């Protein structure tokens, strides 16, 4: 048992009138005690459920991410030979259960034009047990679960796309996953996965998906504390960074200038002839079939969503000067076979 960790639980768990938030340093230490297994399971479970009820502060999340940066894996990105900064796509680890994802297709589209992309996650996990990204990659012939961190680094340098796989690359964080099932709720750790960059430098472009509007401000304040100034927030499909076609996309953009500027974008799909229903996720097998068809340039319900998302991110990452050009370019890349060729390169 950790006496220090017990004090942290007491501090945040003393109720509305006497409970207090942790400092950034205390939150960093609490996370370290959990990752290193110095806190007991009872202490960790108590901390996670109390912290969910209390709601984490930006300072607490910044401290926890400080420890992720200290103990977690880091892909070296400073000396990559690409013309664009690395884009990190932050997607909920518990996957997708209702609407078909296009995050993997977006990543390949960006890599095709020289925007390096890093994704991260693990296997199916609570509380949703949705389809994780690693399963989709496996279905497309790339098994990131078998790669070492060195392999992932080499793939990033060679192809401009890589994946940090929790069970292999960050087992300390992986061992905390079981608590999600035991407490029956997403703990505050689930917010970390949307903001975490498993890269060696803060000079990356973070894409953070979210569901609830207060989460966006939590992202902004936390990332500001951690000196991450190039980021995009997306009220996306099931909390991911996938833009919806069925409603207006609510997007926040922080620009990495000397004086960082926050901008709001309400993207209406009907303005670009993308208005329609989001594609239901019927099964993993059907989704993979649809993704393969898109990569072959065939028109199906998922193609429109892939073009919409790919085009937006081509514009947001600086490849295209305006959204219409981005959408046109995404369509061309998919129908010409260039994205399929990029996948073949990643497959090795």
TrEMBL record:
EC number annotated for this UniProt entry: 2.4.2.18
Origin: domain of life: Bacteria
InterPro entries on file: Anthranilate_Pribosyl_Tfrase, Glycosyl_Trfase_fam3, Glycosyl_Trfase_fam3_N_dom, Glycosyl_Trfase_fam3_N_dom_sf, Nuc_phospho_transferase
Keywords associated with the record: Amino-acid biosynthesis, Aromatic amino acid biosynthesis, Glycosyltransferase, Membrane, Transferase, Transmembrane, Transmembrane helix
Record-level GO cellular component terms: cytosol
Transmembrane segments: 99-119
GO terms under biological process: L-tryptophan biosynthetic process
Residues covered by the Glycosyl transferase family domain: 101-338
UniProt-recorded Gene Ontology molecular function terms: anthranilate phosphoribosyltransferase activity
SUPFAM superfamilies (alphabetical): Nucleoside phosphorylase/phosphoribosyltransferase catalytic domain (SSF52418), Nucleoside phosphorylase/phosphoribosyltransferase N-terminal domain (SSF47648)
Listed Pfam families: Glycos_trans_3N, Glycos_transf_3
Domain Glycosyl transferase family 3 N-terminal: 7-71
PANTHER family named in the record: ANTHRANILATE PHOSPHORIBOSYLTRANSFERASE, SLL1634 PROTEIN
NCBIfam families xref list: PRK07394.1
Protein known as: Anthranilate phosphoribosyltransferase
């Amino acid at each position: 048992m950790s006496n220090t960790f017990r004090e942290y639980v007491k501090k945040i768990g003393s109720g509305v009138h006497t409970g207090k938030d942790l400092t950034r340093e205390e939150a960093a230490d609490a996370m370290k005690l959990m990752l290193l297994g110095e806190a007991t399971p009872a202490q960790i479970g108590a901390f996670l459920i109390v912290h969910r009820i209390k709601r984490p502060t930006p300072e607490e999340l910044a401290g926890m991410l400080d420890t992720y940066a200290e103990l977690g894996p880091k892909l070296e990105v400073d000396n990559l030979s690409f013309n664009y900064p690395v884009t990190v796509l932050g997607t909920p680890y518990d996957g997708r259960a209702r609407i078909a994802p296009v995050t993997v297709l977006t990543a390949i589209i960006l890599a095709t034009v020289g925007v390096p992309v890093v994704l991260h996650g693990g296997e199916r996990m609570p509380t949703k047990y949705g389809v994780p990204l690693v399963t989709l990659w496996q279905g497309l012939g790339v098994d990131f679960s078998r790669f070492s961190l060195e392999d992932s680094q080499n793939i990033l340098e060679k192809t401009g796309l890589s994946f940090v796989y929790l069970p292999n690359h960050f087992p300390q964080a992986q061992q905390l996953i079981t608590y999600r099932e035991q407490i029956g709720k997403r703990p505050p750790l689930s917010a970390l996965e949307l903001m975490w960059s498993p890269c060696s430098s803060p000079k990356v472009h973070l894409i953070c998906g979210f569901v609830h509007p207060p989460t966006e401000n939590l992202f902004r304040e936390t990332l500001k504390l951690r000196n991450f100034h190039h980021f995009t927030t997306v009220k996306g499909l099931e909390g991911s960074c996938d833009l919806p076609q069925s409603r207006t996309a609510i997007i926040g953009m922080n620009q990495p200038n000397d004086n960082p500027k926050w901008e709001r974008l309400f993207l209406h799909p009907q303005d670009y002839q993308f208005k329609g229903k989001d594609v239901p996720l019927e099964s993993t097998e059907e989704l993979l079939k649809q993704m393969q068809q898109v990569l072959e340039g065939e028109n199906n319900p998922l193609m429109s969503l892939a073009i919409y998302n790919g085009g937006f991110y081509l514009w947001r990452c600086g490849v295209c000067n305006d959204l219409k050009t981005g959408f046109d370019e995404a369509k061309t890349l998919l129908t010409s076979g260039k994205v399929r060729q990029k996948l073949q390169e990643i497959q090795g």
